[in-house]
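Here is the promised in-class demo. Please do not try to memorize the tokens; focus on the logic of going from shape to residues.
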């Protein structure tokens, strides 16, 4: 540790004998915790974005199979798989939608609510990456 600096509370005060006496330099003491918090936030945003993406693709797949399989869709194994994957999203959409929304319209509500949420999470992720100067966002 140089003798011409006084260290206190994470800051290094420059001495008057140093040409850079007016500068206050910050030591890297607290930098690691903010970096870890940023990585945790980025990880949580990535997980939420992935869950929404999987749900949106499953809803699109179920809608596509609804159109092409006709009346036999209830016996279709893949349609049943999509119904199982989409059950939490459709249940949540049923809870947040008014009772006047018909049951056959609830998957549309789930799709649009998830689409808006996906866009919001994506924008939050972009904002976070810009704030941390793209560290860990690649």
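The designed amino acids, position by position:
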């Amino acid at each position: 540790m140089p003798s011409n600096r006084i260290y206190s509370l994470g800051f290094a005060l420059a001495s008057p004998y140093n040409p850079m006496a007016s500068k206050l330099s910050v030591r890297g003491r607290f930098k690691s915790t903010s970096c870890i918090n940023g990585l945790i936030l980025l990880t949580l945003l990535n997980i939420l974005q992935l869950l929404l993406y999987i749900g949106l693709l499953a809803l699109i797949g179920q809608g596509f199979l609804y159109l092409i399989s006709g009346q036999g869709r209830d016996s279709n194994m893949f349609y049943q798989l999509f119904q199982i994957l989409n059950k939490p999203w459709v249940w949540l959409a049923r809870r947040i939608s008014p009772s006047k929304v018909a049951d056959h319209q609830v998957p549309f509500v789930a799709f649009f609510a998830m689409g808006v949420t996906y866009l919001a999470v994506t924008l939050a992720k972009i904002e976070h990456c810009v704030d941390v100067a793209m560290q860990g966002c690649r």
